[in-house]
């Protein structure tokens, strides 16, 4: 698998996203995945607000979240079925404004896919819209898939044998977030100015229809839930 991050000029508010992409993407091979950072998708949709004060930002966080709880360092929220900080609302690289997440990342991914497939006359093309997130008990951020189109986001190994013939009961590979993490690593999070990346040779199954809920887990069934319920009883090593 190869990932090529693409340097661009600064994306402007309410700019045409597809036209912007075509300025830097002159060829898309069959069975490739184009990665687009969520920030430029949100900017193309006008999902911005002028930063006024912390109270205004908190109000936006609550409005954008399905669930929000204040913690020592941030607001922990559930947005688009993903646990994230502050509903994804971001002040970085925003020039004094705050940028919200795209309205519907899956729909945006499918729209871009449709336009680019027609432009380059290709059949199998994936579009992946990424953001970044924190993982429990890990320093630093990794990429996360907010929405995607054109490929299956999960590879299911359940009811298949392992190398010794044992039938797997729970094993699934999170393809979408795995690609997002790899791409974000190459694209960067600072002033790299690389909001696009092209992935070729990815081990994905291309498809015209996807299941938007294939990555979703009910919070009450999440493997980490018992840990969070008992976290106050844990004595951490100094």
From TrEMBL:
Q: Which superkingdom heads the taxonomic lineage of this protein's source?
A: Bacteria
This protein is called: Coenzyme F420:L-glutamate ligase-like domain-containing protein
Q: Name one GO molecular function term.
A: coenzyme F420-0:L-glutamate ligase activity
- Which residue range or ranges hold the Coenzyme F420:L-glutamate ligase-like domain? 6-201
Lineage of the organism: Bacteria, Candidatus Nomuraibacteriota
Q: Which organism is it from?
A: Candidatus Nomurabacteria bacterium RIFCSPLOWO2_01_FULL_39_17
Spell out the coiled coil positions from the record: none
